[in-house]
Amino acid sequence: MISVGLLIATALAVAGSKIEATDGQNVTICFNIDEVEKADLVRISFKGDNEGKRLIAQIPWRSNIPPPSGVSMDIEKGRVCVTIQKVSNSSSGLYEARAFFREKMSEVKVQLVVKEAPVYTSPAPEHPPTPKPPTSDLLWLTVIPLVMIIGISGVVCFWRRRKIQRRQKKKLKNNSNASGGNAEALLAVKTHQPCSNHQANSKSISV
């Protein structure tokens, strides 16, 4: 039994199917091959849309050319896995796994399609809410206390002014009464003095 699976989350695909990945992901393709761990040689090759087939992984590695960077291969019981780091559009193409035994060869193929990563736009910054103009009720609640304060202040000032005026009038009245009394006293003195002189003269004449 020969099958293939793609380890992207829990997604699996059968041999010959098309598998999709996203640009920038690390993709691991696992080819299930019976007794692959007993094979004499295991190869993973890749054929792009506009290029020929080329070897990307092999165990054991039997080439003077070093294996390509960003590709790793691992053999487990019953399957062989190849990991391609940060796939891109150029990673799209046909991947083929071959296991060579003494008397047979097993082969599995799968098509990988790499799509562009979705573009996420950051949300626009939230603007603080615009303050609403004060309503008529709120305006009245603000104006009424102000009018009351002004009215009370005016009444207090008027009362204090009237009180000061009353004190001044009372003081002037007292001063005027005192002046009148003094004038009457002086008039009485002046009027009384001639009478005294007349009496003195009368007494002298009598003698």
Largest sheet: 5 strands, mixed
Q: In CATH's first tier, which class of the largest domain applies?
A: Mainly Beta
Mean pLDDT: 76
Looking at the structure, the CATH topology of the largest domain is: Immunoglobulin-like
The number of helical elements comes to 1
Return residue spans where pLDDT drops below 50 for at least 5 consecutive residues: 1-13, 195-207
Query: Rounded to an integer, what's the Rg over CA atoms?
Result: 60 Å
How many separate domains make up the residues? Answer: 2
What proportion strand?
A: 25-35%
Return the structural class. alpha+beta
As laid out across the biggest beta sheet, the strand order is 2-9-8-4-5
Distance between the termini: 184 Å
Order of helices and strands: EEEEEEEEEH
Q: Oligomer, anyone?
A: single chain
Report what the structure shows.
The chain has 207 residues and is an alpha+beta fold. It has two domains: 2-115, Immunoglobulins (Immunoglobulin-like, Sandwich); 134-202. Helices cover 34% and strands 30% of the residues. It contains one helix and nine strands, in the order βββββββββα. A five-stranded mixed sheet has the order 2-9-8-4-5, with no helix packed on it. It has a four-stranded antiparallel sheet with strand order 1-3-7-6, with no helix packed on it. The longest helix has 71 residues, at 136-206. It is rod-shaped. The protein starts with a strand and ends with a helix.
